[in-house]
Design brief:
The chain has helices at residues 2-11, 33-45, 48-60, 82-97, 114-122, and strands at residues 69-73, 105-108, 126-127, 145-148. By secondary structure, the protein is α/β, with parallel strands linked by helices.
Amino acid sequence: MSTTATSSSFYKDFTPVNRKKRKSKLGTEKLPLFDIVQRLRDELGRDDWLIECQQILSESLVACSVPEEILCLGLGSPGASPNARAQLAFLLAISQHLNIGPEKVSIYDPVFTADDRALFGTLHLNLLPENKASSSSFPTLETRVVIYSPTITYSTHELTDSPRGTGNIV
């Protein structure tokens, strides 16, 4: 009986908040995926963080020959994930910093959608059809390759089981 009096006195000072009406998103236009990634890339370019990352990468490559390709595995779907869009923007910035053209950037993730594939085509990235080292479209690792895998660890790559050219992985 005393708990009822205590709990009702507790709620006596409670004032409900008037809810704001939310604006409908029906009238807003969705930006094309390419424009979103480009905007993120521009934002990265205005930040010291990217410059620091580029310096770290350049310093780590001083003792190595210059990489000629980038292999990106496990990016995620840029159409579905803001994190994947940011990671793609970073990948594009790094490839530009290393003077690696988009045709030398190979990319694979099983979650890619048709919109993602269209975006990669617009960006001229080399979309791998499957994630197998035996595939003819998979980089041979005869040249220096930067492996960029934002969501998976190096130990999970199939490449670690392959003796073929692993000395060229950066």
